[in-house]
Amino acid sequence: MIQESEASEPEATRRDAGTTESSRANRGWWDRNADEYQIEHGTFLGDDRFVWGPEGLDEVEAELLGPPEELKGRDVLEIGAGAAQCSRWLTAQGARPVALDISHRQLQHALRIGGSFPLVCADAGALPFADGSFDLACSAYGALPFVADPRQVLREVRRVLRPGGRLVFSVTHPIRWAFPDEPGPEGLSVSASYFDRTPYVEQDDEGQAVYVEHHRTLGDRVRDVVASGLRLVDLVEPEWPVWNTSEWGGWSPLRGNLIPGTAIFVCERG
């Protein structure tokens, strides 16, 4: 999983966690850990780059939202924006982004770095926007890995997209759930069932969840997209590039050269 360590280690387990518990736990986790996250990963992410995942695939090269020159004047919603690096890049292309995150502390980092676009603190399952407000939506590891009901989020995104609008989102590649979350050789042997959808939960001494991440198989993700009224037009599995020598949680050059770590779904609203 992609969580960072805390001062007092919570208990890691696999158990059911519903929508409310997941939302509350992850809002609190990101508020508590935003500072450490930005210190550890801020250099890799940059202030105004659009990176889809730990492999370092950059939207400048990928053009999953479309050619950069066609982004000018487009209304774009970034979901799970964190410090809004992607929104800053979109602004530089002439787009009109809105950066949304469930964590107030993450958005404070967005304020610290700066930018001329709106910041919105809200749950992705209840987007505070009118129907048809955006031309594009994007989410680089935001919201979708952490919600109990991804179809609710996808339906909300479809609602706020204009006809023909595009959503691109990246998540942990489902195959990674079968392997230990270790970047070295110990992370290369299957240790769990790929088909076990039981959420990964970190809980405190009272059994209250403080972090939740939800596993969906690749087929589940495709069915979620289709059931939400979106059309899947591409599925990108970034390969690990030679230049990237860094480790990030369970991501590493060793593992990245053998198994995919990220899945990027490119969807359109009819």
TrEMBL record:
A biological-process GO annotation: methylation
Region of interest (Disordered), ranges: 1-27
Residue ranges constituting the Methyltransferase type domain according to the UniProt record: 77-169
Tagged with keyword Methyltransferase: yes
Pfam families from the UniProt entry: Methyltransf_11
Sample GO molecular function, one term: S-adenosylmethionine-dependent methyltransferase activity
Gene3D superfamilies attached to this UniProt entry: Vaccinia Virus protein VP39
Keyword Transferase in annotation: yes
Superkingdom as given in the UniProt entry: Bacteria
Keyword list, A-Z: Methyltransferase, Transferase
PANTHER family membership: 2-METHOXY-6-POLYPRENYL-1,4-BENZOQUINOL METHYLASE, MITOCHONDRIAL, METHYLTRANSFERASE
Protein name stated in the entry: SAM-dependent methyltransferase
Organism: Streptomyces variegatus
